[in-house]
Design a protein that fits this description.
The chain is built from 13 helices and ten strands. By secondary structure, the protein is α/β, with parallel strands linked by helices. The longest helix is centred in the N-terminal third of the chain and has 29 residues. This is IpaB/EvcA family protein.
């Protein structure tokens, strides 16, 4: 039996939609493990080869519908002109590794909230799948609280990120069956606060997605939930969202340059948003081209021209990061 023959009709329809979107490139499924009661969401992945073709690995066929639907929705977001997050070029290796994981967990959890209606519409969050997710999270919660809040390795913060991910996907009854609120009260409270920050408004467009992400990042900074040496505004890059009008403005009307002070990074600049001081990308200027007149000319460039010249990604502000037309949905 082919892997896709194990999928429900609705998930198969989503798979067909994704294949049409990436054509002429291909998207194949690969069952990589045995049938079991264990679900490790981090074990499934989509890998893109040098030719642009994709392979979606399904580690457990028992949960194939959830795994495939979940990964395909992430693929649709990643292949659209949408929000990405990651460490800036100058972060040291240890900090970069932490920021890469942290940023991706936060963004993916917010995306899960946005995907939830579609996952529910496909009926892939059935009770066995929810039970498996609950078991996975319970097994990964840390009881050793030797690292305080504010450390990048904080047990409370790490547990909160696990719990908030479960709060998004589990229904109220399944969540009530856990003992997390009693066993990890600080992490539970923080997870609840995190979820509330992105439940304030809809999560449909790139602008809404980025706003939700920024609210969470600001919460981490304001409450000093990460290492004090980390400035998420300058150590993390968050894709800018821009309207057609903004793309035609001068760079100076939306952004400013931040020059790294370290001598070994003399050619590296950060592009920071005027409104939120968030880094949206980095670019390099040779030292002998950093004169005031040359920098003024860069500030006078059209935003779109500057971003394209320095290969800084941006997303359409009001664009949808998931297809508006979802298989099986009714649209007026």
């Amino acid at each position: 039996m082919k892997p896709e023959e194990q999928l429900s009709a609705t998930v198969q329809t989503l798979l067909n939609q994704c294949r049409e979107q990436i054509a002429p490139h291909t998207l194949n499924l690969l069952i990589s493990g045995p049938d079991s009661l264990t679900l490790n969401p981090t074990a499934s992945q989509i890998v893109k080869d040098q030719e642009g073709n994709y392979v979606l690995t399904v580690p457990n066929p028992r949960f194939a519908n959830f795994i495939v639907a979940h990964e395909l929705l992430h693929l649709q977001q990643e292949t659209s002109q949408s929000i990405q997050v990651g460490p800036v070029d100058d972060t040291d290796k240890q900090m970069a590794n932490f920021l890469a994981v942290f940023g991706q967990i936060v963004l993916e959890t917010i995306l899960h909230q946005a995907m939830l209606p579609r996952l529910q519409a496909m009926d892939v969050l059935d009770q066995p799948t929810q039970n498996a997710i609950r078991s996975y999270v319970s097994a990964n919660l840390m009881h050793d609280d030797d690292l305080s809040i504010g450390s990048e390795g904080s047990t409370v913060t790490g547990n909160a990120l696990h719990i908030v991910g479960a709060r998004v996907l589990l229904d109220a009854e399944t969540l009530a069956d856990t003992s997390w609120a009693n066993d990890f009260p600080r992490a539970w409270s923080l997870a609840q606060t995190l979820q509330e920050t992105w439940l304030e408004k809809p999560l449909t467009t790139n602008r809404q997605l980025r706003a939700a992400l920024m609210r969470v990042l600001n919460l981490f900074m304001d409450k000093k939930l990460i290492d004090e040496q980390i400035d998420l505004g300058r150590h993390l890059t968050v894709t800018a969202v821009l309207s057609p009008r903004e793309l035609n403005l001068k760079v100076s009307q939306l952004f400013h340059f931040y020059h790294q002070p370290e001598p070994e990074l003399a050619d590296l600049y950060l592009l920071l948003g005027d409104k939120d001081e968030q880094c949206v990308g980095t670019f390099k200027i040779p030292v002998d081209q950093q004169g005031s007149e040359a920098m003024h000319e860069r500030y006078e460039q059209r935003v779109e021209d500057f971003l394209n010249e320095h290969q800084i990604e941006y997303a359409q502000r009001d664009g949808h990061y998931l297809p508006e037309q979802f298989p099986g949905e009714q649209h007026e």
